[in-house]
């Protein structure tokens, strides 16, 4: 009766197709989609009047309340893996959580290399393509 694809591991209901207020902003942990998700989330932060707090380089003048609000909004949009990356080290610090996610998913270090490797090793040639084109 229960469709395993439609329920979470806890049995509390639908998990796929993340619906609700943040449905289009949900990041599923796929490194290949991080850059696009990042653009969407920054756009959302702008609509909320919080973009300057996220992208500013002047950490000394960051409003603490806005920073906490960014964290609260950000964690609503993350899958469990991404949430576990930031929930302890960046508690109520939206800027720090944002930086941690950016470094993990889009950085030039090991995660980025792994992402590129995965992308290259999963390439599939279309039926009408040749290897030399």
Instruction: Kindly provide the radius of gyration, computed on alpha-carbon positions and rounded to a whole number of angstroms.
Output: 18 Å
Mean pLDDT comes to: 81
User: How many H/I helices?
Assistant: 6
Q: Stretches where pLDDT falls below 50 for ≥5 residues?
A: 1-8
Helix-and-strand structural type: mainly alpha
Q: Proportion of β residues?
A: under 5%
Q: What's the helical proportion of residues?
A: 40-55%
The best one-word shape is elongated
Order of helices and strands: HHHHHH
How many strands?
0
Distance between the termini: 49 Å
**Largest β sheet strand count, sense and barrel closure:** none
Structure in words:
- The structure is a single chain.
- This protein is 47% helix and 0% strand.
- The protein has 133 residues and is an all-alpha fold.
- α3 (64-75) packs across α5 (94-106).
- The longest helix has 14 residues, at 34-47.
- The chain is elongated, with a radius of gyration of 18 Å.
- It starts with 33 loop residues before the first helix and ends in a 12-residue tail after the last helix.
- 16% of the residues are buried.
Could you name the key traits of this structure?
disordered N terminus; mainly alpha; single chain; 6 helices; 133 residues
């Amino acid at each position: 009766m229960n469709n395993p694809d439609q329920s979470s591991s806890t049995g509390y209901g639908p998990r796929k197709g993340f619906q609700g207020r943040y449905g289009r902003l949900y990041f599923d942990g796929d490194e290949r989609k991080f850059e696009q998700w990042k653009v969407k989330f920054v756009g959302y932060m702008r609509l909320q009047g919080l973009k300057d707090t996220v992208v500013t380089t002047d950490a000394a003048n960051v409003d603490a309340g806005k920073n906490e609000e960014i964290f609260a909004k950000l964690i609503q949009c993350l899958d469990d893996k991404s949430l576990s990356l930031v929930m302890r080290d960046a508690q109520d610090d939206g800027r720090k959580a944002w930086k941690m996610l950016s470094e993990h998913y889009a950085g030039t270090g090991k995660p980025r290399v792994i992402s590129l490797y995965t992308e290259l090793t999963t390439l599939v040639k279309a039926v009408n393509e040749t290897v030399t084109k």
